[in-house]
Write a structure and sequence with these properties.
Blueprint (H helix, E strand, L loop, with lengths): L9 H4 L2 E4 L6 E2 L2 E2 L3 H10 L3 E6 L6 H10 L9 E3 H9 L8 E5 L2 H9 L3 E3 L8 E4 L7 H12 L3 E4 L5 E4 L2 E4 L1 H12 L4 E2 L6 H9 L5 E5 L2 H11 L3 E4 L6 H5 L9 E3 L13 E3 L2 E4 L2 E6 L2 E5 L6 H17 L17
Parallel strand pairs: 1-4, 1-13, 4-5, 6-7, 6-8, 8-9, 9-12, 13-14, 14-15
Antiparallel strand pairs: 2-3, 10-11, 16-17, 17-18, 18-19
Length: about 325
């Protein structure tokens, strides 16, 4: 398995982009550098956008307003939240109209209500399901109520299992960390609607009738794993959680199809590494794995992302062939410096 190539810019090779938010478009209240310009150029080229977020606490209108305020003009119907995906997944487990205990923010409450379910606030109301999503206001009382309901037989559905939530100060505990509190008390594993499950990507692609969608994300274990689960190509941008080094060491199911420094890469042609004897070459960069050691060389005047692409190809080829790769031999690469 290696990276894909294009003969035209990504925004022409794919008719829609399914774009993650945290770490791709913004970090907390701050925009990711070049995100607005990169997405504007993609829109101008005819690429349709759907912002796909594992955040279930906010309404699509609120997300759209934030993006618009960051110079990324967005309509509410261009936002698909994990709350909406969780509400859709509820229908596969309990009948419409059933009682549901919602543990989360306003976005999750609205999505579950709009899907036709009766919202309750206590395990004493005998809900058929508990739906849990992130909210900064959640406390012990809410998590305990969820645990009581699940112990009494309610199915546990969660918006996502992200352990962390990136913001302008660093990595904060995410929904997955709060879900672990409930599962520790109940011993019951939940059903997840969010990335890396494919549900959200299929819903987003269907919303804009996409034939050749591209998933864009910063996390290999959610965004890019979800792209593979949905059988869509994935673009890893180096503006968030997962680093260039992480990409080199990624297991098969987490590997991206394309790699770019930031969203400006949507306007670029993407070169794929090619094998030349025991070397992998991309642009002027080369990479080899010999006796378990990854060695990379930057060509004069070359693109540092090409160096990363060559390193990924050499490392993935070695691992897939059953040859050793010393993780300590993977050097700092673009975005890691």
């Amino acid at each position: 398995m290696t990276l894909l190539s294009t003969t035209e810019p990504l925004h022409l090779a794919h008719d829609a982009a399914l774009v993650d938010l945290d770490g791709v478009a913004y970090r907390g209240p701050l925009p990711v550098p070049h995100a607005g310009a990169g997405l504007a150029a993609a829109r101008d080229a005819g690429m349709r956008l759907v912002f796909v977020t594992n955040n279930a606490s906010r309404e699509p209108e609120s997300v759209a307003a934030q993006l618009t305020g960051l110079d990324i003009p967005t309509e509410p119907d261009e936002v698909l939240t994990a709350a909406q995906a969780a509400a859709r997944l509820l229908r596969d487990h309990v009948a419409v109209g059933s009682r549901v205990l919602v543990v989360g923010g306003p976005g999750l409450l609205t999505a579950v209500r709009n899907a036709g379910f009766q919202i309750v606030t206590s395990a004493d109301d005998h809900p058929s399901a508990v739906v849990q999503g992130f909210s900064p206001d959640l406390g012990w009382t809410h998590l305990a109520e969820a645990a009581y309901a699940i112990q009494n037989g309610a199915v546990h559905i969660v918006s996502n299992l992200d352990a962390t939530l990136p913001n302008e100060r660093g990595l904060a505990p995410g929904n997955g960390s709060l879900v672990r509190v409930v599962t520790a008390a109940t011993g019951t594993e939940p059903v997840s609607a969010g990335k890396p499950e494919p549900t959200m990507f299929h819903l987003a692609a269907a919303r804009v009738d996409a034939r050749h969608p591209l998933v864009i994300g910063d996390r290999l274990d959610t965004d890019l794993a979800g792209a593979r689960a949905a059988h869509y190509p994935g673009l890893h941008v180096l503006t968030g959680v997962s680093t260039a080094r992480d990409a080199v060491l990624a297991p098969t199911g987490h590997r991206p199809s394309y790699i770019g420094l930031d969203l400006r890469c949507l306007s670029q042609v993407h070169a794929a590494p090619r094998q030349d004897g025991d070397r992998w070459v991309c642009g002027t960069a080369t990479a080899t794995v010999t006796d378990g050691v990854l060695r990379v060389e930057d060509g004069p005047g070359g693109d540092p992302v090409d160096t990363l692409r060559a390193a990924c190809a050499a490392a993935w080829d070695a691992v897939d062939a059953g040859r050793p790769l010393e993780t300590g031999s993977v050097p700092d690469l673009v975005g890691d410096r």
